[in-house]
Predict the 3D structure of the following.
Amino acid sequence: MPSKKNSPKESQLAGTQTPDRANTNAKLQSLEVFRSDATEQALRTNQGVKVADNQNTLKAGARGPSLLEDFIMREKITHFDHERIPERIVHARGTGAHGYFQTYQAHSSLTKAGFLQDPEKMTPVFVRFSTVQGPRGSGDTVRDVRGFAVKFFTDEGNFDLVGNNMPVFFIQDAIKFPDFVHAVKPEPHNEIPTGGSAHDTFWDFVSLVPESAHMVMWAMSDRAIPKSLRTMQGFGVHTFRLINAEGKSTFVKFHWKPKAGVCSLVWDEAQKLAGKDTDYHRRDLSEAIEMGDYPEWEFGVQIVPEEDEHKFDFDLLDPTKLIPEELVPVTPLGKMVLNRNPDNFFAETEQVAFCPGHIVPGIDFSNDPLLQGRLFSYTDTQISRLGGPNFHEIPINRPLAPNHNGQRDAQHRTTLDKGRASYEPNSVDGGWPKETPAAASDGGFESYPERIEAHKIRQRSESFSDHFSQARLFFNSMSKPEQEHIIAAYSFELGKVEREHIRTREVNEVLANIDLELARRVALNLGLPAPKAGTVEVKKSSLKASPALSQMNLLASDIKGRKVAILVADGVDGASVDGIVKALEAESAHPKVLGPTSAPVKTADGKSLAVDASMEGSPSVTFDALWVPGGKAAINALSADGVAMHFLLEAYKHLKAIGVHADVKALLDTLHLKTDAGLIVGDDGKAHAAFITAIAKHRVWEREAAAKAIPA
Ligand code: HDE
């Protein structure tokens, strides 16, 4: 369990409170009158009547029939009968958190957006992370793209940046989205598989639609099995515009870079976690916030001046392309900190309604045809999901900025509009509410007056026709272990495809155009004939590799927030446990003492040592690293305990840092585990330091070949 509890108010108000910060928080809190607290309140009906008996239905006699007049029971059951709302068509499984955004400085040369001007200002945000394919109850750790949607409650209205943890997308035109989603969703006849893309219809579609090649490569990479939501990058994907006070437009791509570094699960671990802890990612996020380990991201933009729009060997409007950071580095704008868990999952995380069309003055769209389609889809889908056009009145969606206009009525309207005029212009209400002319700052929203002279046609731009060069760039930018994981992922997924012609098409017509060796290896694993070189002439990318794409280059240098299991049993050396706990806590990591059961164990010197959990209840897949302290009797007990042995073998197989007391060496030999850069034997300060260094490296990649032989 998390140790340092943080009440919502405390955590929201955490940090040095400048008057402005306090104001922002106070303003938010004062607007949150809808947060209901039942402490010391009587149980009442929805009509406010106090309830005397919440245990028994009104009946004719103790053993008689129930009476229709029982309005208390009827109200309660009727409400219950309607508790569910439709889940999101995609991104149904998600989790959210509150926090704030703070700009580093005024970015007035780029944009007039108010929340990007004053470094003292804290703009409240609500973030929802999600998977794409699975339903609401599906596993967190499946191979999938992750949604990364941020709602900024700015003083000038809500800005929703509805992005993903990958910088590109599967398709180029919104009209293909229903086709893509139908293909990736479970097969229609048996609704299998839940949460994944390893099935015929997905691979049928993507092997027929080569524009998906780049994004499929990302989905087969380690990015699709993130270690935690806190270790994911976020991307706005499309090119947007920022507009400054002079009306000057600049193209940008939005980026979120996590302070905790970028890292992933290994595939076997991800699969096991989907069963052992379906809630692994949402639990990690909410516990981190509870413990005060507030996740933090740097917000940045890649900036492309208008005049450079056509200077790249791809089209800025094509959402299947990224701008390599080596060509245009990310300029940091500010930071986002998540510091408050929702009080109510349904009211906040489920009812939050994002829309890429929610922008504020200083931000504008590009003509990316995928983005343009999204501008329609999100509001439309909320109308059926949230039951009408008033979803902006649901507390979590309400802007902090006032929102007076002539829109009235419809289902679930909660605002009581005063005045007679629900039209504009009017004279009966003094003309209010009135338009605000666009201005350098604080003016009304004005679209960027882009000049367009064109024919009305259904056509894909020729500049969107290169589908393989960035997929190749991505593969070439990966480290050896990352490339091996990609090969394994294609082999695993295509191995689940029943129709051979689909497997063959993906290998010969897609993979062979990306990289012949990749295609050859996958073909070998599938028992297909060796593919010939691809027939598509692939544009030469100006870069051989983009190091910014490899997660190996994106690790954090510290071990802050990492979870370390310490295995104990009766007879453990108490001082040995103390030593490692102190060393880890000094690095702000979270050691957890695990015993054979949840009961305390006896140390070698007869003291009682409380354990945080049992090894079975907190399996190795939920930890970053493992330590086995000294104490001969304890080591003997662990050696005879299958759960403990499995724990050790599995941590080794998943390439985690392991530190053991010298007395455990014999056991390592029995299990055929060889010491390496991440398997440290010793119990002194030097061993502790080596262990901490190994944890910071995240995985012991050089162990991967040896780990394959481990049956765990
Ligand atoms: Fe979405 N998407 N999407 N999408 N999307 C939805 O909106 C859609 C796309 C993304 O946590 C839906 O409220 C179309 C790209 C996220 O609530 C729906 C197209 C990116 C979320 C919808 C796309 C995204 C959604 C379902 C192609 C990354 C979850 C429920 C034109 C930049 C937001 C809802 C949350 C959700 C439509 C493509 C990200 C159906 C038509 C590209 C993070 O409206």
